[in-house]
UniProtKB/TrEMBL annotation:
Organism lineage string: Bacteria, Pseudomonadati, Bacteroidota, Sphingobacteriia, Sphingobacteriales
InterPro entries: CHP02453, UCP028451
Family annotation (PANTHER family): CHROMOSOME 12, WHOLE GENOME SHOTGUN SEQUENCE, DUF2461 DOMAIN-CONTAINING PROTEIN
Protein name: TIGR02453 family protein
Amino acid sequence: MIYQESLDFLKDLAQNNNREWFLANKERYDKARENVIDFVGQLLAILRKVDPGIEETLDPKKCVMRIYRDIRFRKDKTPYKNNFGVSIPSSGSKSGGVEYYLQIQPGNSFIGGGYWMPEAPHLKKIRQEIDYNAADLRKIIDEKDFIKLFGDFKQQEQLKSVPREYDAENENIDLLKLKSFVGWHKITDKEITGKNAVQQIADACSKIYPLNVFLKNALA
């Protein structure tokens, strides 16, 4: 489970997002980060039984993203994120692309997966796969448990216009216009600090797994 102390650290950090406070509370940060790394290690042990694409050698430390923000080109100059982000690639060890993503943040934790905002070459391949095999994708996203957890997949951000490779009358245009291909489910503070948190998140990932398989096949 994620300890309440870890959430408390993030809550205090959000209210004191400056270098002086962070350095004075570095020990609290280290303990919270170790808690998250341990949690991810337990999660990986279960997920590998669900998704064989997750490498056996994947280090949970490398899944936990840096808390330091890149502020070079941002108006918001606060130096730290107010959450722990966890990226678990569905294949290989490089974060980004087809993955499972966990955000740990007081009042705003969630588990998600799929492919968020693919770059043009990958987006083209995914659209081609949808054009050829949309029925396979619809079978995944229209499944009752998928909808219950993640809602309507088609309600993600879409292009305002039709992709130039396709016709507006294409029967799958609602899917072809999508900019991202993800499902996400909010997790309450009570849930993520509960004894069953790891299994609950793993169960949600098992519902994302078929989507990740579809996307990886598109990119193969």
